[in-house]
Amino acid sequence: MADLLSDEEIQERAPDDWEREGDELVRTFEFDAYLEGVGFAAGIAGIAEEAFHHPEITIGWREVEVRLTSHEEGGITEKDVDLAARFDDLA
Fold first, then answer.
1. Which GO terms describe its molecular function (predicted)?
2. Residues sharing a CB contact under 8 Å with residue 22, sequence separation 6 or more, in sequence order
3. Tally of domains within the chain
4. What is the CATH number of the domain that holds 74?
């Protein structure tokens, strides 16, 4: 089990463009075409599976919303911050 991050740690460690909504880190990625977003979603799904830490992914027209939280811990942990940074790198 991972430890929950404090409010200060979340603010310091969360990558730019990610927002905190309650117990989740959230970002909407925008794309020029629908299929680009679908490809991105598939890519982050692979990263998440490798890390065995699975976000909520919502695919829309030219955008993908990603929500990260550690359900088993009840909030945001280092796992979430690390995946957010990896997803940014892929984008």
1. 4-alpha-hydroxytetrahydrobiopterin dehydratase activity
2. none
3. 1
4. 3.30.1360.20
- Which amino acid, one-letter code, is at 66? V
d(CA 39, CA 65): 13
How far are the Cα atoms of 43, 48, 71, 74 from residue 23, in angstroms, in the given order? 24, 18, 9, 7
Do residues 4 and 71 make contact, with C-beta atoms less than 8 angstroms apart? Answer: no
Q: What is the pLDDT along the chain (91 residues), one digit of tens a residue?
A: 679 999 999 999 999 999 999 999 999 999 999 999 999 999 999 999 999 999 999 999 999 999 999 998 999 999 999 999 999 999 9
Query: For 1-91, where are the alpha helices, taking DSSP H only?
Result: 7-13, 34-51, 78-90
Cβ-based neighbours of 62, under 8 Å, separated by 6 or more: 30, 31, 32, 33, 34, 36, 37
Q: Which domain holds residue 39?
A: 7-90
Q: pTM for the complete prediction?
A: 0.94
